[in-house]
Design a protein that fits this description.
By secondary structure, the protein is of the alpha+beta class. The protein has helices at about 20-30, 60-75, 85-95, 105-120, 125-130, 130-140, 155-165, 185-200, 260-275, 315-325, 350, 360, 370-380, and strands spanning about 5-10, 30-40, 50-55, 80-85, 150, 170, 180-185, 215, 220-225, 225-230, 235-245, 255-260, 280-290, 295-300, 340-345. It has 3 domains: about 5-120, Rossmann fold (3-Layer(aba) Sandwich), CATH 3.40.50; about 145-215, Dna Ligase, domain 1; about 220-380, D-amino Acid Aminotransferase, Chain A, domain 1. Helices cover about 35% and strands about 25% of the residues. The strands form 3 sheets. Strands 9, 10, 11, 12, 13, 14 and 15 form a 7-stranded antiparallel sheet that branches. Strand 10 (about 225-230) and strand 11 (about 235-245) form a beta hairpin. Helix 1 (about 20-30) crosses helix 10 (about 315-325) and helix 7 (about 155-165) packs across helix 8 (about 185-200). The radius of gyration is 20 Å and the shape is globular. The termini are far apart.
């Protein structure tokens, strides 16, 4: 019997963000036929595992992006859309939550239905991209979060720091990753950070919300993200990795240790159920040094830079997703007990320090089986984003 690949459309507005660059190979190995919708010059298009690439107009407006997406979907008939960056994710969610005014053409209705099938329940799209909404929802789901307050003035920020800290973290509600996240040691610093974050973030136009700012108790501990894939609210597979080296504080990993972390698995499965997630997602946890308890720090509902590494450690997220899309029953997959495997991430650690001892000591995820992409990455100046 011949093997039929599942058509997937990977969409990204970024030409040089790492996650979609490394995912075509993982998706192909997992059983997908990969089409890209990307800007001109996108590094992902150099991968030999991409079947075809369709280009977004240069500096595309939201409307142009929508028309290009509709055309790509009509041409490819994908079983799933995969947002490769935060902007693509939010544009997809906005099309469902805030469709263009007036009667909707059949193409837009069909696209919205495909987005829901690809991302999961739209009821929780806002909570997935707004930290101020996510915290109480995760608490209700039984996921541990640091003490927090939502604040709307410098005075409230200072008061929150006095109540929670004084060591706190100030975060924009609609921020992504470590962008505009500020560590504060005093109420005065929290007040000043509020002003900075408010000015830096402004209004989140893609989801139509006024800016809101989160103050959280700062956890002293080790960052241990868990990257997962879910289908209709059920986590299919996931793996945790200790973040041992980063490009900069609050930025991307360069050296990681893959570990068995049962509490993180329990929390991620609860989050997937609570948000009704389909697709890839990553939750940043911080494991407190003094108690060993894990706290949810951040959640992203898209592929992350290390998502493709799952098959290298025996947890193939893409294969699990392909099986679920084909109607198979997937038993939850995780790293086995006592797992402890080190890895340097390419090209992150190479760019952080070309003479790093870790490059000689530990295995790496260099794409040896994808020479065109490998050559491009060698010549590319990596910047950790998201």
């Amino acid at each position: 019997m011949s093997f039929v690949r599942i058509p997937a459309l990977l969409v990204t507005c970024e030409s040089e963000w790492l996650a979609p660059i490394r995912m075509p190979a993982a998706l192909h190995r997992g059983g997908f036929d990969v089409t890209l919708l990307v800007p001109s010059g996108a590094l992902a298009a150099h991968s030999r595992h991409v079947t075809r690439s369709r280009l977004l107009p240069e500096n595309a407006s939201a409307q142009e992006w929508l028309f290009a997406l509709i055309a790509a979907v009509e041409a490819v008939a994908p079983a799933i859309l995969l947002p490769g960056d935060e902007m693509s994710l939010r544009l997809m969610q906005a099309l469902v939550c805030e469709p263009p005014p007036g009667p909707q053409p059949a193409a837009i209705k069909d696209l919205a239905a495909l987005i829901v099938d690809s991302l999961g329940s739209p009821k929780f799209y806002r909570a997935g991209v707004d930290k101020t909404l996510l915290q109480p929802l995760m608490e209700q789901a039984g996921v541990r979060v640091p003490g927090y307050r939502v604040v709307r003035s410098p005075e409230e920020a200072a008061e929150a720091a006095r109540a929670l800290g004084p060591e706190v973290v100030v975060k924009p509600g609609g921020g992504t990753g470590g962008r505009d996240v500020i560590d504060c040691d005093t109420p005065q610093e929290a007040s000043a950070a509020f002003r900075y974050v408010l000015e830096a973030t402004g209004k989140d136009r893609t989801m139509g919300r006024e800016p809101s700012i989160l103050i959280q108790r700062r956890i002293d501990g080790l960052m241990v993200p868990r990257t997962s894939v879910a289908f209709r609210g059920k986590e299919l597979a996931g793996f945790a990795r200790e973040r041992l080296q980063t490009i900069a504080p609050h930025r991307g990993s360069t050296v990681v240790r893959y570990v068995h972390a049962p509490e993180l698995a329990t929390f991620s499965r609860a989050a997937a159920r609570a948000l009704g997630i389909t697709g890839f997602f990553t939750i940043e946890y911080c494991v407190e040094r003094t108690t060993g308890q894990a706290y949810l720090i951040d959640l992203t509902r898209r592929m992350a830079p290390p998502t493709h590494t799952g098959n290298l450690v025996g947890v193939d997220l893409c294969a699990a997703l392909a099986a679920a899309l084909q109607g198979e029953e997937v038993e939850p997959l995780d790293l086995p007990e006592n797992s402890s495997r080190m890895m340097t991430l390419f090209p992150q650690e190479f760019w952080r320090d070309p003479k790093s001892a870790a490059l000689r000591q530990y295995p790496s995820d260099v794409p040896w089986d994808d020479p065109p992409l490998w050559r491009e990455l060698l010549m590319w100046r990596y910047e950790a984003r998201g």
